[in-house]
Amino acid sequence: MKAFLILEDGTVFEGKHIGADKDVVSEIVFNTSMAGYTEVFTDPSYAGQAVCMTYPLIGNYGVCLDDMESERPWVDAIIVRELSHIPSNFRCDMSIQEFMDKYEIPGIEGIDTRALVRILREKGTMNGIITTNENLKYDDIKDKLHAYTTGDVVSIVSCKEKKVLKGVSSLEENGPLSGSAVFNADNYKADLAGDHSKRERKPAIVKELNGKGLKVALLDVGAKKNIAETLAARGCDVTIYPSNTSAEEILKDAPDGIMLSNGPGDPKENVAIIKEIKKLYDSETPIFAICLGHQLMALATGADTFKMKYGHRGGNHPVKDLSTGRVYISSQNHGYVVDTDKLDKNIAEPAFVNVNDGTNEGLAYVGKNIFTVQFHPEACPGPQDSSYLFDRFIDMMKKGKSEGGKN
Amino acid sequence: MPKNKDVKKVLVIGSGPIVIGQAAEFDYAGTQACRSLKEEGVEVVLVNSNPATIMTDKDIADEVYIEPLTVKVLEQIIEKEKPDSILPTLGGQAGLNLGMELDESGFLKSHNVKLLGTTAETIRKAEDRQEFKDTMEKIGEPCAASLVVHNVQDGVEFANKIGYPVVLRPAYTLGGSGGGIAHNQLECEEILENGLRLSRANEVLVERCIAGWKEIEYEVMRDSAGNCITVCNMENIDPVGVHTGDSIVVAPSQTLSDKEYQMLRSAALNIIDELQITGGCNVQFALHPTSFEYCVIEVNPRVSRSSALASKATGYPIAKVAAKIALGYTLDEIKNAITGKTYASFEPTLDYCVVKFPRLPFDKFITAKRTLTTQMKATGEVMSICTSFEGAMMKAIRSLEQHVDCLTSYDFSELDDDELRERLKIVDDMRIWVIAEALRRGISHEEIHDITLIDIWFIDKLHALVKMELKLLRIGEKNTAGKDGDVAEAAKIISYETLLEAKRLEYPDAVISRFTRFKEDVLKELRYKYNIQATFKIVDTCAAEFAAETPYYYSVYNGPDSEDEAALKSSTDKKKILVLGSGPIRIGQGIEFDYCSVHATWAFKRAGFETIIINNNPETVSTDFDIADKLYFEPLTPEDVENIVRLEKPDGAVVQFGGQTAIKLTQDLMKMGVKIYGTDAKDVDAAEDREIFDQILEETQIKRAQGATVYTAEEAKEVANRLGYPVLVRPSYVLGGQGMQIALSDEEIEEFMNIINRYAQDHPILVDKYLQGVETEVDAVCDGEDIVIPGIMEHIERSGIHSGDSISVYPAQSLSDKVKQTIAEYTRRLAKALHVIGLINVQFIAVGDDVYIIEANPRSSRTVPYISKVTGIPIVDLAAEVMLGKKLKDLGYTPGLQPEAGYVAIKMPVFSFEKIRGAEISLGPEMKSTGECLGISKNFNEALYKAFLGAGINLPKYKQMIITVKDSDKGEIIDIARRYEKLGYIIYATRSTADTLTENGVKARRINRISQESPTVIDLILGHKIDLVIDTPTQGRDKSRDGFLIRRTAIETGVNVITALDTARALVTSLENESTEEGLELVDIAKV
Predict the structure, then answer these.
(1) At a CB cut-off of 8 Å and minimum separation 6, what does A49 contact?
(2) Which member of A52, A64, A291, A380 is catalytic?
(3) What are phi and psi of B1057, to 5 degrees?
(4) Nearest 5 degrees, angle CA B620-CA B623-CA B625?
């Protein structure tokens, strides 16, 4: 079946329909990661968006459900050059086609994705519709496209109830450290036979249980699974709170540190959450925030954010840690950014900068145990280079704890 | 960190002659790095023994030494030039080893020379097996477990511990004989026992077997501040067991999920960080196909073939960035030259798929084993870019120029299913064609995977190509009009969708035509009618996230809305010229043609043209993104070139510089309406066509050996007997002497004609009287009226040995002035008669004062870079100028043979025989060398010494040699042997050679032939005490003969082998001269 992508500017792409049979209006964005499509599609930050993968061959290794970054995919639709006929990987649970069917994700295949990216790059992110209706004209849909916004998506993607992820009590629980996995033929056979409990888990990268005994409150404004898992793998007990939780409720549990997660949409939409975050700021609890969390903290403390022309989405952007001068390759997924021109230097100072375009990638809060980053140290997908930031957070919590003890 | 201001003068070490495993990629890396250093105001001293390279041009470095790459020579260069630093990581393993030796001896320290980039300690850590293993262990990166054992019990114990299968490798056995893979204890015991017995050292290495695992590579960069990035990762389609240089490789990896991808990426960064590499580095992993288990195979702390591939695959200039890092810059300070916006610390991301295919030399070495192992055999490679894997694969296949253009090109339909399954087990260069046949038979993906261990994803992709092939064949069955079918007919049975899909999969029109039986032209017309056109996309390092400055294009067939980025590029008012490259490096068409293509491009650029290069070789300078104004990374077939021509509408094209690859396209370009700059196609043809050429020779009164054209063996014998033996038999329209033989008898004529006629011949076969004389060669530039001949080269080996395999001397030493004048005059007459505008290469035989022509090729030749450098006459630049209508006189040259330079320059061929098991090494009319080096000096003997030294022939060691020659050489060998004896050599000889020598007063120790009792000549060679074997082969290609075994054994034992008396004489001359590595006169080519 034919499918069409009609953009807000009137551009029409004709391709082949894939996945669920439904029309969808969405914000069209692109991601430049060459691997990790499962993680992208299930990242709640993409709620309200249709993602175009710039790598042309998608679905090669199928979908491994372990790799999902949340309970379900959040993308509105998938735009690809070519979907693999067959999946091939030892952990594959289903093909990308089966995955799209299962979660009713529509999509379009076979368009000139590079041309689409060039349009988005030149004109900026815009809305579009993916449809199988050959008779649909741009004029019929124009207003609807212009009117579309991602809206208040945070409440949709956030968990609905508080939940707890216990920290591991020994490193063994994390499974074999990267580099020490050894193929076990019996387990592999069992996995093939349907006993997935024997399947090899992703290789651990944590070498020390430095977070043991620490309690982290994670405010879920659209969190990727790996944020909590990264902390738990270091031994932290993580309590995950729905986005509408009040600051008081979180602080009442007396966490050693608070983690603000990534999430979707325009940060300014989250007026109520921002208010609560201001209260968290005022508490003396150490805070580490990622992506949307970083933007919300900035807004809560009087800074401003703006929408970027086409955002950063991929796994190859260099960010510079201004405290050390070191450059790390980062996993990125954001359309908004903190405006450093309007930053009150008495409140926060830039801590990370994007080497390519000089935009802000992180803030250190003056006189506070708070640091926030725009990129994704939890990776998944993308490079694990900046996972040391979780250790930095743990050190901060420990410091806070010992200082708090003194008081 | 800003640039290190103390670095003012750097010595860069090149990689020496092209050999298998060390090819043009180092010219590319070295050239790029030298330009990058000069850009920073650093003075560059370059040393490389290879004269065919671009890096040894005076435009590239400030001081250029084409001298043998030995420690002692480098020491003298350092003493003379006094560089403050040395950069050893650009010249492959050869350059790296030299840098290390200089460091370890303390020479660098005592001369205040710093090793730039990666430190010596790091290099040791990466190169020393044990140190590397220990380092990896320390940081928790696994290597395949291994242990050296001296008895069966220890071996079995270790094998049981690490688990089966294990690889057993006996130490010091020829070609690894006695080793094998053990799948259980019983097999392990058996192989160990046998291996221990065979090993002279009674030593066997027991190693965890990782054959069949996925082979994954990462190219990594690190700066002195510790910032690391990965430029690219690559997946070998052939699992571990085949050298990555011989594997089909795809970038980026296709079958790895992000978890595996990042696991290995992090491991690569860990490793490079622990090793403290500053610069580029290649890390190879074996990844278990059904788990997260992996092993580090090896690390190369330098630029490599893989880094060249990664650079071309991504657009990221690794060598350039490595050079800047060596100067102290950090990655975030270095601009990405492709985008001009991002920095070198940005990791490239691809929005296309890249396939690399090896170019294997089995068409040259027909007796060689075609199996692929951990020993690399490929002489070169091609790369292709497309948005689909199938498309990239199809483009790569047809770029090979090995008579393959799709998956039916090798036919296995004769095999029955069982035979086919057996055939699938053989790992050789034809494996994917065997898989295609298996897929046609309906053998399942799983079964093919179980046999080949190639990932199912790749097998499925091959299946997609096979399905299209079957679809096209079905259309062919419906085609009732056959070859006469017109477009209307074709449109009836070939739907738009099918044709678009076939083109998306990169089926060329020629193949579609074969399957559907419509003419190619009809299919092309149908494509245009359907508006199915190739569009061009940019390689920009960033998947279009940022606007790219650099026009580096590849083609793709998409739907009608596909955007053409090359068409969007605003045109200049400059005239456009198309320069056709020379494709993959192969024996007979090497790096020299890339030298010519690049220089031509620069010359046309200077003349105000917009230059466009088409080429598909990732190892070369010509495919660097900033050589031409536009680079099209595409196959060099008429259809692919036409797509570019339709878009670019060039004002002309040059085909003279790209070897046979480019010349072959001349007719097609003319049909497309493209003007050919330089010599007309019909004149190029005239030189090839025996009859027309004979006519020209008659008109110009130039002599040639008598001969005739024939079609059958009977005719050949008749001609041969009329002329008198020996005669030269060869097919017409071939280059590199392919299929040429000297026949001594009717029987040999029969044999050779059979070999030639194995393939149907479109053209007649030539039988010529074989003349014995001095072979000479000239390259000349002609403007249509006048001619400039930079010099005459003389070959040391007499005619019968391919000019590319001969030692070549400039200026000619043994020719009389009369002969030289005759050669110059003949060349002038011929160039004029052929209306040459540009280059011509002519080969002659001088017999006494008589000069006979062998052949003329109105195009660039293998000797152009060499002769340009030693005479200081920029031949390619002149050729480009005259093509544009300039006259040689106006360019400041006096027509005719130029005065001889004050230097003797000797070009020495270099071979890679030890790499190709079963290859016949004796020299003959068919070219076999892979590269060359130069010896240059004011004095002939010293030049000769340098040439041998550069080629790795450094004698004496033991002063023992073996001589065994054919009967007809026995007279001539006496004097040569006497001269070796006088130098103190102990001579061993087989029976009749020994008799001849003894009878003539040369002391020779008789040694048993192979069939006689031990010790035989083979035992003597295996004893590692022999410097040299002189073995002149008896005629015929029968490889079971003793001589063949002696030569192979010697080559595989690392003994020098000479198969021509002239070479043996030249070597003894050089030895008599008592030149030593110390006190050589060093020649700065830049000042010549």
Answers:
(1) A26, A27, A28, A29, A75, A76, A150, A264
(2) A291
(3) -125, 135
(4) 130
Euclidean distance between CA atoms B824 and B461, whole angstroms: 57
CB neighbourhood size of A17 (10 A): 18
**Nearest C-alpha in B relative to A88:** B457
A52 labelled catalytic: no
- A64 catalytic per annotation: no
Strand order in the sheet with B114-115: B63-65, B43-47, B9-13, B85-87, B114-115
Residues 6+ apart with CB under 8 A from B710: B716, B719, B764, B765, B766, B767
| Element (DSSP H or E) covering residue A353 | strand A348-354
Task: Report pLDDT for B758.
Answer: 65
Element (H, E) at B470: helix B456-478
Nearest 5°: phi and psi at A371?
-140, 145
Rg (CA), chain B: 29
Residue of A nearest to B143 (CA): A179
Q: Whole-angstrom Cα distance, residue B359 to residue B352? A: 23
Please name the residue ranges forming H helices in B951-988.
970-982
Question: Which chain B residues touch A82 with a CB distance below 8 Å?
Answer: 387-388
Interface test with B, best of A88, A189, A192 (most B CBs within 10 A): A88
Pairing between strand B552-557 and B765-769?
unpaired
Is A312 known to be catalytic?
no
Contact assessment for residue A342 and residue A259, using Cβ atoms and an 8 Å cutoff: no
Q: Is B488 exposed, middle or buried (0-12, 13-18, 19+ CB in 10 A)?
A: exposed
ipTM: 0.98
Per the CB < 8 A criterion, the answer to whether A374 and A267 are in contact is no
Helix (H) or strand (E) holding B232: strand B228-236
Tokens 């990555």 correspond to B244
Put residue A361 in one of left, alpha, beta given phi > 0 → left and psi -120 to 50 → alpha.
alpha
- Overall size of chain B counted in residues: 1088
Count of Cβ atoms closer than 10 Å to residue A205 Cβ: 17
Concatenated DSSP letters of A16-69: EEEESS--EEEEEEEE--SS-HHHHHT-GGGTTEEEEESSSEE-TT-B-GGG-S
Strand partners, A371: A288, A364
E-assigned strands of B500-633? 534-538, 552-557, 576-580, 610-615, 630-633
Mean residue pLDDT across chain B: 92
**Structure-block tokens of residue A396:** 């901060």
Residue B788 near residue B888, CB atoms below 8 Å: yes
Taking the C-alpha atoms of residue B142 and residue B151, their distance in angstroms, rounded to an integer, is 26
Q: What's the rounded Cα separation, in Å, for the pair A5 and A24? A: 10
| pTM (global) more than 0.80 | yes
Residue B146 has pLDDT above 50, yes or no: yes
Could you give the CA distance from residue B641 to residue B797 in angstroms, rounded to a whole number? Answer: 40
ω into B2 cis (within 30 of 0): no
Residues of chain B found within 8 Å of residue A355, distances taken between Cβ atoms: 332, 342-343, 345-346
List, edge to edge, every strand of the sheet that includes B294-300: B294-300, B279-287, B214-222, B228-236, B249-251, B353-359, B380-386
Q: Are B142 and B136 in contact (CB under 8 A)?
A: yes
Under DSSP, the state recorded for A121 is H
B839-871 per-position pLDDT tens digit:
999 999 999 999 999 889 999 999 999 999 999
Q: Which two tokens stand for residue B542?
A: 């960033």
DSSP A8: T
Structure tokens that stand for A186 in this block: 């019996």
Chain A interface, mutation test: which of B208, B228, B259, B497, most A Cβ atoms within 10 Å? B259
- B325: tokens are 């890092």
pLDDT value for B1075:
80
